[in-house]
Amino acid sequence: MVATDKIALTLVIVGALNWLLVGLFQFDLVAWLCGGQAAVISRIIYSLVGIAGLWCLTLLFKKWKRD
Hints:
Shape: elongated
Radius of gyration: 14 Å
Number of helices: 3
Distance between the termini: 12 Å
Largest sheet: none
Low-confidence stretches: none
Number of domains: 1
């Protein structure tokens, strides 16, 4: 697994945990840490998580080598 894949998976996990908090407790951790959903840094994080999700789609179709 290359570094890009690991970074993308990490961001997707962060996004999934954030959505879990939103779904269970109506608490948006990213917005809380960054000053609201409309804050520039929040929008950057949301965008990076979305791009990482798109990147992870490629992992579904990747052929993995067995060591």
